[in-house]
Each structure stands twice: as C-alpha cells, then as structure tokens.
C-alpha cells in the first residue's frame, strides 16, 4: 500500500501539468509591451513575421488584448493563458473592458477555448456600456510629450497655411493670365450596370491575418502576398465608389515617394465567405499610426524632428506639381490628414496614407489633354485645366522651405 501511494504522488504532477491535448492559439506581442507569455507554450514557425502560432503547455485557453484608441482597435497581445479560468469555455473571443490606461484609450480582453479563437474578436462593446472603466478625473501628462505634440501640431498648421496661400496664388495667377477658372465637376450618374469586378484580378496567394484598423467605409487587415507582409484595405460592396476614387489617386503617374504609403495592386476578394469586395493592397508598417505610436512611446528630440521632417517632405511632395521622366504628376490636396492617417516606418520616419478624400488640383503645368486613366470617384478629381504645358510654376515651394528648415535643425544635432 505504501508503494501505491508513492507511485500516485509521483504521477500527480505530470497529470496536472500536461493536459490531454494542447490548445493551439495565435501568438503576438506588440512592440513596447512589458512582460511576455511566450513561456506558457511552444512557439511554431508560422511565417516571416507576426502573428505566429503557439501550442499551450498549461491550459486549453487562448486570450487576446486589444487597445481601443479614438474608435480604432489595435491588437496588443495574443497567446495562451497559464490556467483554465471562467470564460475559457467560450468558442468565440468576446472582449470585455478591463482597464483604461489613458483617457482616450481602453483595454479589452477575451478568453476562449477553441483553436485560433483569439485571432480576431467578434465585436467590441460600446464605451458607454456597463462595466466600461472610466476615469473622469484629470490625469497628468508628461511635460515632454506636451511639447512634442505642440511642435508637431505647429508644423502641421504651418504646412496647411502654406498650402492655402499657394493655392490662392495659383488661382490669382490663372486669372491674370486669362485662363479659365475651374468649374465644379457635374456629378456623374452611377454606373449600376457596369461589372466592376471584371476589371480586378483575384490573388489566390493573398492571405488575411488579422484586423489592424476599422473605418467607416473599409477594414484594414494585416496579410501576406507572395511571402511578404502587406496591408489589405477591404471595401464592402456599398463602398465601390470610395474604392474607385482612392485607387484612382494611388495609380496617378509619378506618385512614388519614400514618405507616401506605397501602393502595390488592386484586387477583389474577402477574408471570409462571399460576396467578394474590392481590395487595395498597400505597404504594411507594423509600428502602426502616428497616434498609436505617440500614445505608447516617448520620443526624444531627434526622433521628433525626424518624424516632423518626413511628414513635411511627404506633404510637400503631395502638393507639388511636377514633370518627371515624361510623366505629369498633379498637385494633390489630402483633405483628411490626421495622426490616424500617418504611419510610422521602421526607421522612425512617417508615411502619409489613406487618400480616400484626396483631391487633384488644377495646375499651371498641366497638359491640355491630360486626364486620369481610372474612373473618377465622388469629388475625387477636379476638371482638367486648359493651360498650356509651358506655363509652369513651383507648386511646393512653401512646404519645401519648411522641410529644408527642419532638415537644417536635424543636421545640427
């Protein structure tokens, strides 16, 4: 009998620590997150970048944590729990609010008990729902962050003011030289009988990984195309006009710049079952938006100047009207520039994205017969000017001067 008791005690730890079958979960940890749950499972090599796959060692429960900032959900952590707890029996990831680290952000967590159930959440409860943490008292903001935010805001206002003055000078010069003023473009009838999907190829090798941003007319996914990480902007069928307008801007000749999000291709497809919608495949920047980056990190003076300089260079390029290699690039007004639409590159510089509301401006160097090749979306492209190609004017001088000033400060550091 004593030998039987000793054998039972010897087998008990093995029975407790090794569940009958391992749960498989999605594993991801955002840059800057403190602590790691990697030791709670065995990582599998699932590709060149995030997210990865993990086999749980101590539980049959997956978890996910999302940070909701200004109505934009950003994944923070995904992985295995250290033990089975209430809520792990659910086959779906139903997040609930847990903490509010800042007045403008809320953390949502979920636990679920199915393979890969933590890849995406089913829905996020509204911030006003019962149980949502809320801190109405004032919270201290580090003084350095305030100065950085004021610096970036001042540079942005200066660039917008310079762009407005430049547009007024171009319009005035057009009147003096006798050129006709641009007239509003008449609204075209919707082409309801046109099969837009016939113009877009399918990409069987395109893979959807996880949602990184949700907007009013689209959902942005992190994915892979031919083994490379990409961002996939998926539009529903009701937003075909918005897709066509943004695609027309991205496919303008000469719109390639280090500080403009790179357009790869347009396609059709869906992360789930049909119906398939139009897709824009763009360059992926894993560090996220400028808003998310500044809420999660504290930047030094050199990093702040680098972000401001690259943002100024990208905006100056958008506004500039130029000829390059026999191709004409018109001036473009973004019209929706915010910290949510500016992304952080791997080198710490900025890239401007989301051209859904951008507008092509009439120019002085524009050829008489020039017109975009893609269909025009609502208020996307103004009527072509009839000025001769020889009448040129520098369209980005004011913004270029601002960028040069910031560059000189950066070189002195």
From TrEMBL:
UniProt keyword Signal, yes or no: yes
Amino-acid biosynthesis recorded as keyword: no
Signal peptide boundaries: 1-18
A GO MF term: ATP binding
Residue intervals of the Protein kinase domain: 206-413
Main location: membrane
Residue ranges of the region described as Disordered: 176-196
PANTHER family named in the record: ANTI-MUELLERIAN HORMONE TYPE-2 RECEPTOR, TRANSFORMING GROWTH FACTOR-BETA RECEPTOR TYPE I AND II
Name assigned to this protein: receptor protein serine/threonine kinase
Organism of derivation: Cervus elaphus hippelaphus
């Amino acid at each position: 009998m004593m030998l039987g008791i000793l054998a039972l005690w010897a087998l008990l730890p093995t029975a407790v620590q090794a569940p009958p079958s391992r749960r498989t979960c999605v594993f991801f940890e955002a840059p800057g997150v403190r602590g790691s749950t990697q030791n709670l499972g065995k990582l599998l090599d699932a590709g060149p970048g995030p997210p990865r796959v993990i086999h749980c060692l101590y539980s049959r429960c997956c978890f996910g944590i999302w940070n909701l900032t200004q109505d934009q959900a950003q994944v923070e952590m995904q992985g295995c729990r250290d033990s089975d707890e209430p809520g792990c029996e659910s086959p779906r990831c139903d997040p609930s609010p847990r903490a509010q680290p800042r007045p403008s952000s809320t953390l949502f967590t979920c636990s679920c008990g199915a393979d890969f159930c933590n890849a995406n959440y089913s829905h996020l409860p509204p911030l006003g729902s019962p149980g949502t943490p809320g801190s109405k008292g004032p919270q201290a903001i580090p003084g350095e962050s305030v100065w950085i935010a004021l610096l970036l805001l001042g540079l942005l206002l200066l660039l917008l003011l310079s762009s407005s003055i430049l547009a007024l000078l171009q319009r005035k010069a057009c009147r003096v030289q006798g050129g006709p003023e641009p007239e509003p473009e008449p609204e075209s009838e919707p082409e309801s009988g046109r099969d837009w999907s016939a113009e877009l190829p399918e990409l069987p090798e395109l893979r959807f990984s996880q949602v990184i941003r949700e907007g009013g007319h689209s959902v942005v996914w992190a994915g892979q195309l031919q083994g490379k990480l990409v961002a996939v902007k998926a539009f529903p069928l009701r937003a075909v006009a918005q897709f066509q307008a943004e695609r027309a801007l991205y496919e303008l000749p000469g719109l390639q710049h280090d500080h403009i999000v790179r357009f790869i291709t347009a396609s059709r497809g869906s992360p789930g079952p049909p119906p398939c919608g139009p897709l824009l495949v763009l360059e992926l920047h894993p560090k996220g938006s400028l808003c998310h980056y500044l809420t999660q990190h504290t930047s030094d003076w050199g990093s702040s100047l680098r972000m401001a300089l690259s943002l100024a260079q990208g905006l100056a390029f958008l506004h500039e009207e130029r000829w390059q290699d026999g191709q004409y690039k018109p001036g473009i007004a973004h019209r929706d520039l915010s910290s949510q639409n500016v992304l952080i590159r791997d080198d710490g510089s900025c890239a401007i994205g989301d051209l859904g509301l951008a507008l092509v401006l009439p120019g002085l160097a524009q050829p008489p017969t020039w017109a975009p090749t893609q269909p025009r979306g609502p208020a996307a492209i103004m009527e072509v000017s009839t000025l001769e190609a020889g009448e040129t004017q520098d369209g980005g001088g004011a913004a270029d001067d601002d960028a040069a000033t910031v560059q000189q400060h950066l070189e002195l550091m």
